[in-house]
């Protein structure tokens, strides 16, 4: 399919390019010392991850340990309530550890093992990446340090406990806003000091090259499965697909299965409390081009041009930028990026639970809320939503903050 001059038949051969750029977005903006570490990871990824042994081991792990493929569920009762449009969800909440994050964590830690590293370093916001990384480290027998902001530690106590039970060292980050951006800062600092013995395993399609490429490739299994399953289930492609976008790992993997199809694609950012700077984390809607954490993308900036303070009810979405591939797809117009606020999100959280018996992660509830809104504008058709994670981690926070509805 040709779209705005881009041939999506060959898209994955050309994007990113050899230097990690999706158009003008991406790249690697790090110190010379850290660039040597990035070059080592890049060379290892393109060598080891193409080997038969690596691919076979990762496929075995996905089947025997993760429980893949995850199913698609038809939201029949919710669909009937809305009208003629049929809603479906790709059940990444049923992937081992409860979210899509394990897809790339197992790949990254397997790569670290092949590279002879002794420890993995990671950041986490909602805790799902931290739990998945701690799980992968335990599986492969590597040490694991997880950096997490104080605010998120308080909101995500169940996931903090899981990480510790799995043997990870949870490092509390107490500077700045004490959320995801600061956790990434701290993790990068730690990695710079010990890159010879460790590997930084970033939690999204962010950071310097090759991480946006590598995480997307490991998450491609979501979109690949979803496309095949939906056609098998219904006999045709969905009319639209929807996923939440913070950094954008679940969306990048999900979208990758459908970019070359005549399917409308929607990436949903957190509008939070509203459009005022500091009340949301909708970088693609309100941001401008800028560099942070070693990559060029679209970011929210303060008056000094620095990363702005952000907010979202979802700890996994409160990041002031988005993955460079999302910035590129936004610029092309291939993916339509829109927003959902906190109130709409919490309504969808309870609605999915009450109508379908599925408690979604607050991050995923953004996509569910938009899927419901989108269905109301369509006369007929189908919408496939990526349910990127389950809501066990969020139940106490939702009840304490919003009560039982």
What do these coordinates show?
This protein has 405 residues and is an alpha/beta fold. It folds into two domains: 22-62 and 101-210, Rossmann fold, CATH 3.40.50; 69-99 and 212-402, Rossmann fold (3-Layer(aba) Sandwich), CATH 3.40.50. It is 45% helix and 18% strand. The chain contains 16 helices and 16 strands. The longest helix is centred in the middle third of the chain and has 24 residues, at 211-234.
Which key features would you list for this structure?
Rossmann fold; alpha/beta; single chain; 45% helix; 16 helices; 405 residues; six-stranded mixed β-sheet; 2 domains; four-stranded parallel β-sheet
- Return the CATH class of the largest domain: Alpha Beta
Q: In total, how many beta strands?
A: 16
Cα-based radius of gyration, to the nearest Å: 19 Å
How would you state the average pLDDT, rounded?
Answer: 96
Q: Could you say which structural class the secondary elements and strand pairing correspond to? A: alpha/beta
């Amino acid at each position: 399919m040709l779209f705005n001059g881009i041939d999506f038949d060959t898209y994955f051969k050309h994007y990113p390019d050899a230097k990690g750029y999706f158009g003008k977005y991406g790249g690697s903006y790090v110190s010379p010392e850290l660039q040597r570490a990035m070059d080592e990871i890049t060379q290892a990824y393109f060598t080891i991850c193409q080997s038969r042994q690596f691919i076979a081991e990762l496929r075995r792990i996905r089947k025997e340990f993760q429980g893949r493929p995850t199913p698609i569920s038809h939201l029949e009762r919710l669909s009937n309530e809305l009208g003629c449009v049929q809603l479906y969800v790709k059940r990444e909440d049923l992937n081992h550890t409860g979210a899509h994050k394990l897809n790339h964590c197992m790949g990254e830690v397997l790569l670290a093992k092949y590279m002879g590293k002794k420890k993995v370093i990671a950041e986490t916001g909602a805790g799902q990446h931290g739990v998945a990384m701690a799980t992968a480290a335990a599986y492969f027998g590597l040490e694991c340090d997880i950096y997490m902001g104080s605010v998120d530690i308080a909101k995500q106590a169940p996931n903090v406990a899981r990480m510790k039970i799995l043997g990870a060292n949870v490092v509390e980050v107490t500077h700045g806003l004490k959320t995801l951006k600061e956790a990434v800062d701290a993790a990068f600092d730690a990695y710079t000091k010990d890159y010879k013995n460790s590997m930084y395993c970033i939690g999204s399609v962010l950071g310097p090259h090759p991480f946006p490429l590598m995480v997307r490739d490991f998450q491609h299994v979501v979109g690949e499965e979803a496309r095949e399953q939906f056609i098998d289930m219904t006999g045709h492609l969905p009319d639209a697909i929807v996923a939440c976008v913070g950094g954008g790992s679940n969306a990048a993997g999900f979208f990758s299965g459908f970019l070359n199809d005549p399917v409308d694609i929607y990436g949903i950012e957190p509008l939070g409390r509203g459009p005022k700077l500091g009340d949301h984390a909708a970088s693609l809607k309100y941001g401008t081009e800028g560099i942070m954490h070693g990559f060029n993308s679209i970011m929210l900036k303060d008056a000094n041009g620095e990363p702005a303070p952000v907010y979202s009810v979802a700890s996994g979405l409160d990041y002031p930028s988005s993955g460079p591939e999302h910035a590129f797809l936004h610029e092309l117009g291939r993916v339509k990026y829109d927003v959902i606020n906190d109130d709409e999100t919490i309504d969808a959280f309870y609605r999915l639970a009450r109508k379908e018996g599925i408690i979604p992660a607050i991050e995923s509830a953004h996509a569910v809320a938009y899927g419901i809104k989108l269905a109301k504008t369509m006369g007929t058709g189908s919408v496939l939503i990526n349910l990127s994670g389950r809501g066990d981690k969020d139940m106490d926070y939702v009840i304490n903050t919003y009560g039982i509805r």
